[in-house]
Structures are given as C-alpha cells and as structure tokens.
Amino acid sequence: MRCPFCGNVDTQVKDSRPAEDHVAIRRRRFCPACGGRFTTYERVQLRDLVVIKSNGRREDFDRQKLERSIRIALQKRPVEPERMDQMISGIVRRLESLGDTDIPSGTIGEIVMESLARIDTVAYVRFASVYKNFQAADDFDKFVSELRPHAAKEDE
Ligand SMILES: [Zn+2]
C-alpha cells in the first residue's frame, strides 16, 4: 500500500482488527520512509462498480469519495459514526445489488439522498441543495468542495 504522504510503496502493517461488526478489517499502517501513519479498511467487494457520468465518462466507484461527501453533509450533526458507517455500507450494498455494474452517477446521488433523508433532515438538505449544482457540474471533487463551505456556513 503506497504511503499517502510521501509515495513510498513499502509500508508496514502495525495492527489489524475487525471493524464495523466484522464487516471490515481495519489496518494501522506505518511508513518507514517518512514516519507517516495511516489507516486502511479491507472490505468484501461483491462486484467492481463503475460510475457512468452524464458526459459518458467512466470511473471506478470509490467508496472513500462517497464517504467524504456524506461525512461533510453530516458534519456536527447528532449522528453516531457507527450509524454513518452502516448507512454507507447499506448504500454500497444497494449499488452492488442493482443488477448492473455500470451505475449512472445520478443513481448514486438519489440513493444517498434517500438514505440521508432517513437519518438526518439537515444533512439531507445540505446534500440535496449542493447536489443540484453537482448534476450540472458532474464532477465529484468539485461537488465535495462546494459542499464543504456550505456545510460550514450552516454550523455558524
Ligand atoms: Zn511515507
């Protein structure tokens, strides 16, 4: 696993333990080159999912990107981290069970909004309001950066 800080590919696993009620394995890693520490999660992936953007471009589905956007939407909301992890796992399982490994980006947005609406209305509104612009931009990184200041503003 490549070190996210210095790019060294020779990192060491210091600790492995079950996480999320044995759905995942959490590994603490150490980079001997720069001293950096980071965490990785190993999960069962039933199928390799591909996101189809509205401009037709294909991109491997990235759970961490999904997690980032949901984490920002839920910032400072009274939702337990375990609850959030369960929700994200639930979303991924739904995506995996859609019957097609190619998933339009809009479908992911709809499922995320549905799930957020069920656990926290404020987070749902945050996500949904930014999601409208996101559909035009269709760029997940831009989406996350737009979501961030919006979420921060509501916390003031
Ligand atoms: Zn390093």
UniProtKB/TrEMBL annotation:
Keyword Transcription among UniProt keywords: yes
Keyword Mitochondrion: no
GO molecular function terms listed in the Swiss-Prot or TrEMBL record: ATP binding; DNA binding; zinc ion binding
Keywords: ATP-binding, DNA-binding, Metal-binding, Nucleotide-binding, Repressor, Transcription, Transcription regulation, Zinc, Zinc-finger
Essential cofactor(s): Zn(2+)
BP terms from Gene Ontology: negative regulation of DNA-templated transcription
Mapped zinc finger ranges (unnamed): 3-34
Cofactor binding note: Binds 1 zinc ion.
Location of the ATP-cone domain: 49-139
A Pfam cross-reference name: Zn_ribbon_NrdR
Highest taxon listed in the record's lineage: Bacteria
HAMAP family, A to Z: NrdR
Entry similarity comment: Belongs to the NrdR family.
Purpose of the protein: Negatively regulates transcription of bacterial ribonucleotide reductase nrd genes and operons by binding to NrdR-boxes.
Protein name: Transcriptional repressor NrdR
Native organism: Yoonia vestfoldensis SKA53
Gene name per UniProt: nrdR
